[in-house]
Amino acid sequence: MIGQLSKAAGRFPRLVVGGRDLTLEVAFTALILLLVAVAATTSDTFLTQTNITNVLKQMVTTGLLAFGMLVVILTGGIDLSVGSVVALSGILTAGLVSGLPIPVAMGVGIIAGLAAGLVNGTLVARFALAPFVVTLASLTTVRGLAFVYSEVPIAPEDPAFFTLGSALLGPIPVSTLIMLVVFVAGGVFLSRTPAGRSIIAIGGNAETVRLAGINVRRHVILAYAISGACAGLAGVILASRVGIAQPSVGVAFELDAIAACVIGGASLAGGRGSVRATFGGVLVLVLINNLLNLYGVQSFWQQVLKGLIIIAVILVQRTPRST
What we know:
It is built from 14 helices and four strands. It is mainly α. It has a domain of 191 residues. A hairpin with a 2-residue loop joins strand 1 and strand 2. The N terminus is likely disordered.
């Protein structure tokens, strides 16, 4: 039976336009439209302005983490520390607001994420350590630093602190616009710049890239630095949106980021992934979460579903494309 399903997947028609395979984009569009149609017909609150605004705000954290994770995955690595970085950046920012200007405090939070990424990248690239082991250790270390800074939640009293996470530009949250800018700029970086193309090539064959005269170590460090900076920005925005920073926040956030990348067709072996498809993966995850919340499904079952989705997509990726 499994063999028959694999052969069927291999015979699945591909949509190629102008030399580009648009099958995944079309599939995402169809899936998103299906989810929206189901939600609109089964829930009276899905299409309300309040719910749509909440969805746009909630996708920011997952979106920023997913883009950073995609860059790392393209090199053949993984970053399990992003959830802990979200906690550290958020609580640092919230704690520093009372003594520093808000933009400076937020900048410190983002720099903390960048620093964590640089450390991860250096350990992976210069010492040839396994990314899984390095970022797993970083997950624990960074989480510990968040608790060292403050064992209790911090709630800034300055109303201006909440602006970044709650402000709207028309009907669209400013934080969502920031995430979209990151995706657009990231797409240009990966597809149009030598550094971005090198990051993708490293995941395909690092030795070939090295023989071509490209500094593989530097680009791997850059990839982890981008992931750390995105996690830092996500932590700052999340703290601003909810109005409180907790050292325990961000647990399992890395699962959401990895799930969005995998749903978007990124290969965990590296060298293959799309910014547009990853954004589609984020949107699919957020819509599924929103639907489950509207239906009153417990969050534990949401985690079960995400895990099953990752397994299913990886199995589909392993099916042959030709008979």
